[in-house]
Design goal:
Layout lengths: L2 H27 L1 H8 L3 H9 L5 H17 L1 H20 L4 H29 L5 H26 L6 H12 L5 H5 L1 H21 L6 H8 L6 H10 L1 H34 L5 H23 L7 H21 L5 H16 L2 H11 L6 H27 L6 H22 L8 H9 L4
Amino acid sequence: MGKSSSLKSTLAVSLNNYLDAGAIVAGASGLTLWQNYLGLSELHLGWLNFISANCLGAAVGAIIGGFLADKYGRKFIFTYNLLVYMFGVLLIMCSVNFPMLLAGFLFTGISVGVGVPASWTYISESSEINNRGRNISLSQMSWGIGPMCILLLGMLFAPGGYLYGWVESLAHGFGGDGMAQASVEVFSSRVVFFSLFVVAFIAWNLQRKLQESAEFEAAKESGQQTGLLENIKVLFRNRIAVKTVAFLAIIYLTWNLVASVMGFFQPHIYESAGGMSNKDANMLSCISWVVVVATTFIISFLVDKVAHRIFYVFGLLCALTAWFIIIGIGVDSLMWLWIFTILWGINNGCSVQVFYALWGSELFPAKFRAGAQGLMFFIVRGLSAVWGLVFTYIYGENGEGFTVAAYCMVALLAISLIVGVIGAPNTRGKSLDQITKERYGDTV
């Protein structure tokens, strides 16, 4: 596959990251509107988060999708998976009761999980030796563009937003002039989810036309492809593969436990610790994602030319500095809020997730490459769901445990930094076949 072809396929597959992050942010930004419309309790909201793209739904989907991609091919996932995503989004858009809304969140979350291992694997396998890191970075840039765009749309369409008048007209066009106010306001969330439906439809049309991964085809022709259960057994019987799963799961889990909490609590931190208004807090959160996109774009030009360990350490040092500012100085001034925002944005742009996606697709043989990633994603998203509940308990009802929570964040980031520095592989400039032979020999 030529350089332009790999870039084209990367951009097509990267839309999955947009849809992943976009679904999480769209769900979070519209929760209050759905709560008012359907009369939901906090327990209902907890269930929506638990089975969504941010937690269990994606976790279950990832372990299923990873092994399906290794059994039937990456193209198999691209051909059918986004149809499930569109169905889930359609359910959310049309929801008139809690079961419909819950089912929509579940289908969307499972689809997100199914697509992640296949996407990262395909991008790596379709890239050339000297632009594999670039393509993975560009894919991660889409992960930042999703929340940025969804937050912007949410602000425009939300009650009081610049385009809310259009939302009101649309709502009354469907439900008549006698609609309750909560029924009208929830249409802003329906419109935001419709934008995800449109992007998913475009992505599905692009992805179903992609060629199958040459790496997968070669493994299939050599007779390496076996049943799903056999691939799982091979993965766990191989000592190197198990150590690799442990290494990647540790660095990604410890970082993601912090990142997942920040994805939900960042505006709250601005409000409770920084004293900002809700509107300004959401705007600063959006700016943080702009920093993410800009940083990832810059990194994409350098990641194949500079040792990965340097960027890995740099990103985590920015994250640790941001949290030390909160602990030692506080963010009760606009200047420190901006510094915190920029540092955390740089961390996300040069994040552990970038290298987890890159190394996760490099360090396993094609036979169970997607399955191993699906397993790790299952572990990370599943434990992140549990951690979200634990963090809420530590944080307290009114933020009285904020300092303790911040120290927990520092400890988790430090673990990710130390383990990553010790175990960072030297894969830059090597083909996937070369990496596999160096690590596994002819045993797989």
